[in-house]
Amino acid sequence: MSQYHFLLRRGLQGLFVIWGVVTLVFLLRYMTPGSPVDFVAPLDASPELREQVAANLGLDQPIYVQYFEYLFGLAQGDMGYSYLRSQPASSIIFARLPATIELAIVATIVAMIFSIPLGVISATRRHEPADYAATGFSLVGISTPNFWLGIMLILIVSVGLGILPTSRRPIGFLPAMELLIFQLETQGIREWVVHIILPAITLGTYFTAMIVRLTRSGMLDELGKSYVQATRAKGLPETLVRYKHVLRNTMIPIITVLGLQLGSLIGGAVITEFVFNWPGLGTLIINAINVRDWPIIQGALIVIGIGFVVINIAVDALYTYLNPKVSYE
Predict the structure, then answer these.
(1) I need a labelling partner for 82 at 20 to 30 A (CA). Which of 94, 119, 133, 310 fits?
(2) Contact (CB, 8 A) for 202 and 245
(3) What is the pLDDT of residues 33-51, one digit of tens each?
(4) Angle subtended by helix axes 89-124 and 129-143, to nearest 10
């Protein structure tokens, strides 16, 4: 099977997954108690006004009609209208999406920078102080709750030492880069960096600890194989053996976890966003759930589902580069 057909098949499978997510999200609205009309209509609304509000929301139509109208609207990029915010749901969601993506990507980069070297050092210096330090860090990182770590970082680094700000996101990455490139103004990018450091560390610590363990166990498994002894017998430098041959064969499970975790970070950074008042999708979903703003809830969940599908297809495509034996099968 060619790479084109492989990616086409993955894309079609992804479309079925997205259709399933959309269907479940649509039905979720009808499986939860209460009516969206209660949160839109005034408390003293007459029955006639409530009927009018239900008609405006399309709730007076049969469920299959509502379903197909919802699918037709989504195909056109229409996620519904948030009467509570008086804005289209899609504009609200896509305005919040960059903040979440920035946080997830920076947390992933931080995790990858620290975790893979730590895992390699831990595996190649087994039962030495560096190995004990790396495994101890991974144990603490996996055991530490995000909300507690975030609060401790705020109390120590921001409040106690006064080094970094406690919360907020005064400027996004792209506007900061525009200022830097077109106006040679560094204030924007400095503001962005100092505000994202603590949320990224909080979000990426668990991820870092997990990748350290995966890298260590994968390296130990590969180092015991015969091809490693063969490469050493040929006189290849030890650094080349570790990083070109052994680490490359260890990367497949790491990339699998990386893809799944990046999707989780995009959709699961709720606590971190709340602790640092980060204006991303997580805080938007929680606020929407509190007031049952269904267009926002449904649209945000669909965006997160699409993100999972796209990331998983990208991970599958990376397999073809790292291990051609499993590609296109």
Answers:
(1) 310
(2) no
(3) 767 677 666 666 677 777 7
(4) 150
